[in-house]
Amino acid sequence: MNNKSEKLQPLRGIIPPMVTPLVDRDTLDIEGLERLIEHILSGGVHGLFILGTTGEAPSLSYKFRYELIERTVKQVAGRVPVLVGITDTSFVESINIARRAEDVGADAVVLAGPYYFPAGQAELIEYIQHLEPELGLPLFLYNMPGLTKVSFEPETVKELASLDGVVGLKDSSANMIYFHQLQHLFRDDEKFSLLIGPEELLGETLLLGGHGGVCGGANLYPELYVNLYQAACERDLDKVGKFHSLVMQISTTIYSVGKYKSSYLKGLKCALSVLGICNDFMAEPFHRFREPEREKIREALTQLGLLK
Question: What is the domain extent for residue 80?
Answer without folding.
Answer: 5-236
